[in-house]
Amino acid sequence: MIVDLRSDTVTRPGQAMLEAMANAEVGDDVYGEDPTVNALEVEVAELFGHEAAVFTPTGSMANQIALQLLVPRGDELLCDSMAHVVNFEVGAAAALGGISTRTWTAPNGRLDVSLVEPMINRPNPYVTTTRAVAVENTHNIGGGTVQPLAELKALRELADAYGLALHLDGARVWNAHAATGVPLREYGRLFDTVSVCLSKGLGAPVGSLLITDAERAERGRVVRKRLGGGMRQVGYLAAAGRYAIANNITRLAEDHARARRLAEALEPYGICDASQVETNVILLRTPEIGKIAAAAAEQGVRISALASDWGRLLTHLDVDDAGIEHAVKVLGDLVR
Ligand SMILES: *Cc1c(COP(=O)(O)O)cnc(C)c1O
Fold first, then answer.
1. Do 315 and 217 lie in a common domain?
2. How far is the CA of 319 from the centre of ligand 1 (A)?
3. 61 CA: nearest ligand 1 atom
4. 208: Cβ below 6 Å to ligand 1?
5. With 90 as the cut, is the pLDDT of residue 88 above it?
6. Range of 323's domain?
7. What is the whole-number distance in angstroms between the Cα of residue 60 and the centre of ligand 1?
8. Average pLDDT for residues 106-124, to the nearest whole number?
């Protein structure tokens, strides 16, 4: 038995999703003629209460298009120091967008607006002008942390007061929605641009979207083409995304329950804090993480060692209760 907990990106499409893909009606999406892509973009824009959405191959591309739309070259983006946009997109904001970034430290990735306000540089010939703030919800490296709605609303007020734009890296905003019941539209309306991934908890093989207003979306299509993200009969992939949205959002609660079960089983050994597990991510903190990951892999349980003293597990569509019990046994034996 292989239980792959390294990431929620490792899922493979099941039979029903594959059938939806095989039966998709397609056309050339660079000409705007793929009916399945067009339907997906309309559906997702509506879910988040925005005018438009742009299908992209990856979440990184959706994020970087958004940042290029919000921050002129040489100006500044603020985000937390562990944010995906600044740590895991291989310098794209700087290399491709000419965007300067400055970061605040966020324990568990949780947004604290009081840290953001003093960082804002207003337009002035002697400073790097702040144009936008990016927030991640849920926060990946923070441990699947859900950003409190009140804090997001306070950030919106701050942004309006200073004339800043707000971007939501919502790769896992579906998990935040499933954990809190906050409507996706409620999250969406607080941000100028939102990126979402179909290829994480929702279980599609590929695909993300940038969600925004109609004017930005038009310019976003130009940036997407420039980045090499103009795809042709990509409705086959959009069909997987439409299937995922229709079928796999409410079931995220199962992933969250399994993550809690696993964290509670491992907590007595002092390597994780189950009270911090809000969604599908568990952080393990131990200097033995490298050894534990290697030994667990030999018994079919794969986890990610991300540094010398900590690692990460994620539950997802392809891990069932039996998989979790197997992981509890294998990891429990290794850490006891
Ligand atoms: C996975 C992820 C992305 C996008 O990643 P891609 O691999 O480029 O699709 C963006 N933000 C966060 C927080 C992520 O976890």
1. no
2. 20
3. 8
4. yes
5. yes
6. 251-335
7. 6
8. 96
pLDDT tens digits, one per residue of 1-24: 999 999 999 999 999 999 999 999
Residues 212 and 293 in one domain: no
Q: Is residue 1 part of a domain?
A: no
Q: Kindly state whether residue 63 falls inside one of the protein's structural domains.
A: yes
How does the average pLDDT of the chain come out, rounded? 97
Does the pLDDT of residue 159 top 90, yes or no?
yes
Residue 108 has what pLDDT? 95
Q: Specify if 10 maps to a domain.
A: no
The SS3 call for residue 326 is helix
pTM confidence score:
0.97
- Mutation test residue for ligand 1: of 10, 111, 169, the one with most atoms within 8 Å of CB: 169
For CA atoms 103, 106, 110, 116, give the dihedral sign. Answer: negative
- Contact 137 CB / ligand 1 (< 6 Å): no
**Pair of tokens at residue 198:** 């179909």
Ligand 1 nearest atom to the CA of residue 200, by list position:
1
Verify that 38 and 144 share a domain, yes or no. Answer: yes
CB distance 145 to ligand 1 below 6 Å: no
CA distance 122 to 83: 23
Shared domain for 23 and 128, answered yes or no, is yes
User: What does the alpha-carbon distance between residue 285 and residue 335 come to, in Å, rounded to a whole number?
Assistant: 11
Residue type, 178: A
Our count of domains for the chain comes to 2
Domain boundary among 192, 212, 247: 247
DSSP secondary structure string for all residues of 205-271: SS-EEEEE-HHHHHHHHHHHHHTT---SSTHHHHHHHHHHHHHSSTTHHHHHHHHHHHHHHHGGGTS
Same domain, 20 and 158: yes
Residue to mutate, 6, 55, 67, 88, ligand 1, most ligand atoms under 8 Å from C-beta: 88
pLDDT of residue 336: 85
For ligand 1, say whether the CB of 80 is within 6 Å of any of its atoms: no
Of 85, 87, 147, 197, best ligand 1 pocket probe by most atoms within 8 Å of the beta carbon: 197
For ligand 1, the distance from its centroid to the CA atom of residue 9, given in whole angstroms, is 9
